[in-house]
Design goal:
The complex is a heterodimer. By secondary structure, chain A is α/β, with parallel strands linked by helices. Chain A has helices spanning about 20-25, 30-35, 40-45, 60-65, 95-100, 100-115, 130-145, 175-180, 210-225, 225-230, 260-270, 305-310, 325-340, 345-365, 370-380, 390-395, 400-405, 410-415; strands at about 80-85, 120-125, 160-165, 205-210, 240-245, 250-255, 280-285, 315-320. The chains are: A alpha/beta, B alpha+beta.
């Protein structure tokens, strides 16, 4: 099968150089895009049914169509690559940036052309130092070859990309918090509307897209809408980077058709559970997605199917829970992360998540009560969408609410036996 | 006082942004790369250079966990405490590291060799447990490999 995103990866793990990238068709998508109008590029992306790979799954072409266009549009307009990969269990964007950095850069230039953006930023996680080196080298190569700059390939289109080092905090992945961080402020989310497409970075029209999403854009232009949609098993176009971590035989990352069944990924690619262990559940798309269990293993891993099963595709990188790992402990670990990473802006979030973590820790220590179980249930409602300023807290309680449902017996045992049955 | 090198690096990066406020994070990271942390004195120097109040800069510094307002040891080890590493025995690696170096997370060894910090998911979940020392990623850790890695840092 075709692997447009990873097919070019070198076996030795080093980054693909500009000349290698060009030899395999690199920057041909950009050349083709520059012969089209920006509206035509957006139309192609719309028809391709490319949906955002950062977690929310919003239709990419649709998002671009909200950007004011034409000679009265405010400038500079911005395109931001969200390279702040920090969803626990997620390791796909790092691979894309370290192994084929030009792919992200070409995708960004084509996306920027479509919205007539002037300036691009790659908002990069501070810890991703190797990604920084790979991208910095690739950006210099692209600049020297006139793929970036004042007059890209003689087209008259002008675009520049800057690499922005972030300094931590998960909330920066939320697009409006990211914009505040880029402006040099504390990364609290902003009120919406206005949406960034209209009023984003420094009040100017801004598109924020995940790295994997952008890596698809020039492939669509170069090889066409039908080709792109044909890569997928569903109506949503393209391939998807799927990952598996936890106690499976072969944890890893694979590019597969969008909509590949979960069982196929876990068993054929990840090799199934390690000997002696049984599968109990999985977070299908990172820490902020609901657990799915054995009954759901035949779910196709696409946005709509995973949602129907009661969770979210999220980042598509799965974390597997086995029968010798404590589900309550795992949820405590997740809520510890969320309580720590809450930005502190709205009270339900910072207070509710700290409370939740404390209760889960008490259960792990054997001091949890039946009333605590009720409080945990209450928190999942209290922090539901609509009660908090942004989507952070509702995401944080997704694994909790599903764990309470699927692993009720395990929570019960912690209370009744006054200890964690898994800790010896 | 900022060094000439620090000033030069900050001025180069300033060209990437339309105003000086956007440099608040990057400028502190630059100072930190040279000194290991951001002192009150450095905040004052940056405040003057960027035309931002010390309070604003400190507000930013204390929001972001990768900006350090306390001195660190010669090496900084960051141990992943997120979910995939937790499943794969990250707590054992953390405990081993702390006992080997006779310190705890958030602290620096008495000889100033290591500062240990917890860190969120490093994006190495298929090679868990993972940690990072001075920006270099170490994967597939077990007790033996951890000992070997730590021994490389004097």
């Amino acid at each position: 099968m075709e692997k447009p995103l990873t097919g070019n990866f070198r076996a030795d793990g080093e980054a693909v150089s500009l000349s290698e990238y060009e030899r395999s068709g690199g920057y041909q998508g950009l050349r083709k895009a520059l012969l089209l109008t920006p509206a035509e590029v957006t139309e192609l992306v719309k028809k391709s049914n490319l949906r955002g790979r950062g977690g929310a799954g919003f239709a990419t072409g649709m998002k671009w169509s909200f950007v004011p266009m034409g000679k009265d549009a405010p400038h500079p307009k911005y395109l931001v690559a969200n390279a702040d990969e920090m969803e626990p269990g997620t390791f796909k964007d790092r691979a894309l940036m370290e192994r084929d950095p030009h792919q992200l850069i070409e995708g960004m230039i084509v996306a920027a052309y479509a919205i007539e953006a002037d300036i691009g930023y790659i908002f990069l996680r501070g810890e991703y130092e190797r990604s920084y080196e790979c991208l910095a080298r690739a950006l210099a190569e692209a600049q020297a070859s006139n793929y970036l700059g004042h007059n890209i390939l003689g087209s008259g289109y002008r675009f520049e990309i800057h690499l922005h080092n972030s300094a931590g905090r998960y909330i920066c992945g939320e697009e409006t918090a990211l914009l505040n961080a880029l402006e040099g402020k504390r990364a609290h989310p902003r009120t919406k509307p206005p949406f960034p497409q209209v009023s984003g970075l420094w009040g100017k029209p801004t598109i924020v897209q995940n790295v994997e999403t952008l890596c698809n854009v020039h492939h669509i232009v170069r090889q066409g809408v039908d080709w792109f949609r044909g890569l997928s098993k569903t109506a949503d176009g393209g391939t998807k980077l799927y990952g598996v971590s936890g106690k499976v035989k072969r944890p890893g990352l694979w590019e597969l058709p969008m909509g590949t069944p979960m069982r196929e990924i876990l068993e054929d690619h990840a090799g199934g559970m390690r000997d002696g262990l049984r599968f109990r559940g999985v977070l299908p798309g990172g820490a902020s997605t609901d657990f799915l269990v054995e009954d759901h293993l035949d779910t196709p891993m696409d946005y709509d199917s995973v949602q129907k099963a009661g969770s979210r595709l999220g980042t598509g990188t799965m974390v597997v829970l086995d029968d010798q790992t404590c589900p309550v402990g795992m949820v405590w670990n997740l809520e510890h992360f969320f309580a720590q990473e809450s930005c502190g802006w709205c009270t339900p979030c910072w207070s509710g998540l700290a409370w939740t973590e404390k209760i889960l820790w008490a259960m792990e220590q054997g001091t949890g009560s039946t009333r605590d179980l009720e409080t945990l249930k209450f928190q999942t409602k209290f922090l539901a969408p609509g009660n908090t300023f942004c989507a952070f807290a509702p995401g944080a309680v997704e694994p909790l609410q599903s764990a309470l449902k699927y692993f009720a017996e395990d929570f019960r045992r912690h209370v009744d036996e006054h200890r964690c049955p898994w800790r010896r | 006082m900022l060094t000439a090198e620090e000033r030069r690096e900050i001025e180069i990066k300033l060209a990437d942004y339309p105003n000086k406020q956007a440099m608040s994070i990057e400028s502190m990271l630059i100072v930190q790369r040279h000194r290991g942390w951001v002192s009150d004195e450095s905040l004052g120097d940056l405040s003057e250079l960027l035309g931002l109040s010390v309070a604003d800069l400190d507000g930013v510094a204390t929001f972001y966990n990768l900006i350090r307002r306390r001195p660190v040891g010669r090496h900084v080890a960051m141990v992943c405490d997120s979910v995939s590493c937790w499943i794969m025995g990250g707590e054992r690696i953390r405990d081993r590291l702390c006992s080997r170096l006779d310190t705890t997370l958030g602290e620096t060894t008495a000889d100033g060799r290591f500062t240990l910090l917890p860190i969120v998911c490093l994006g190495a979940c298929d090679h868990a447990p993972a940690m990072m020392i001075d920006g270099k990623l170490y994967e597939d850790l077990d007790e033996q490999r951890l000992d070997e890695v730590v021994a490389r840092y004097k």
